[in-house]
Amino acid sequence: MSAGKDVVIGLLREANVPFEVYELRGDQAATVESAARSIGVDPSVIVKNVVFTSGDEAVVVLCSGDKSVDRAKLSAALGKNLRLASRDEVPRLTGFVAGGVPPFGHRGEVKVTVVADRSILRFEEVVTSAGTPSSLLRIRTEDLLKLSKAIVLDVARG
């Protein structure tokens, strides 16, 4: 197991919540659609964890796979001027590599706020990153929200 996945699984076990981890191969993790197809779920059930920054802090947005984050709505809702973090910034901000940022367990150099778009509330269970670009985690939405301490807002479009 990689260090990122170890962190996530450790937190899940500590919280005593049910979960399932999937390992993807090759291009299975290239897109939401290919990841969903490889594990037999609808793409909307995949929760993307998108990293934004204002420079001195990070915001990780949990967004359904059939939606995209509306940066203007997010910035307005939080009262901050946010921009999408670059791939190079993501490890410093979250402690995880781009494409493998989980919804909780962040250990970067800055404060991280987690926002869950309300689109994920449609599902009893979701699938999201388990801490590496090739690992996915199935978890109850309720547990995801508790572990991530997410603020639920309407910040998506699509």
Name of the CATH class: Alpha Beta
Q: Which structural category fits the helices and strands?
A: alpha/beta
Radius of gyration: 14 Å
| DSSP helix fraction | 25-40%
> How far do the termini sit from each other?
35 Å
- Listing every helix as H and every strand as E from the N terminus to the C terminus, the arrangement reads HEHEEEHEHEEEHEE
Number of domains: 1
> Mean pLDDT across all residues, rounded?
95
Give a structural overview.
The protein contains 5 helices and 10 strands; from the N terminus they run αβαβββαβαβββαββ. It is an alpha/beta fold. The protein has a single domain, classed as Alpha-Beta Complex (YbaK protein). A hairpin with a 3-residue loop joins β2 and β3. The protein is globular, with a radius of gyration of 14 Å. The protein starts with a helix and ends with a strand. 41% of the residues are buried.
Key terms:
alpha/beta; 10 strands; YbaK protein; 30% strand; eight-stranded mixed sheet
What's this model, at a glance?
The protein is α/β, with parallel strands linked by helices and 158 residues long. It is built from five helices and ten strands, in the order H-E-H-E-E-E-H-E-H-E-E-E-H-E-E.
Layout of helices and strands, plus pairs?
Layout: H1 3-15, E1 19-23, H2 32-39, E2 46-53, E3 57-64, E4 68-69, H3 71-78, E5 83-84, H4 90-94, E6 111-117, E7 125-129, E8 135-140, H5 141-148, E9 151-153, E10 156-157
Parallel strand pairs: 2-7, 3-6, 6-9
Antiparallel strand pairs: 1-8, 2-3, 2-5, 4-10, 7-8
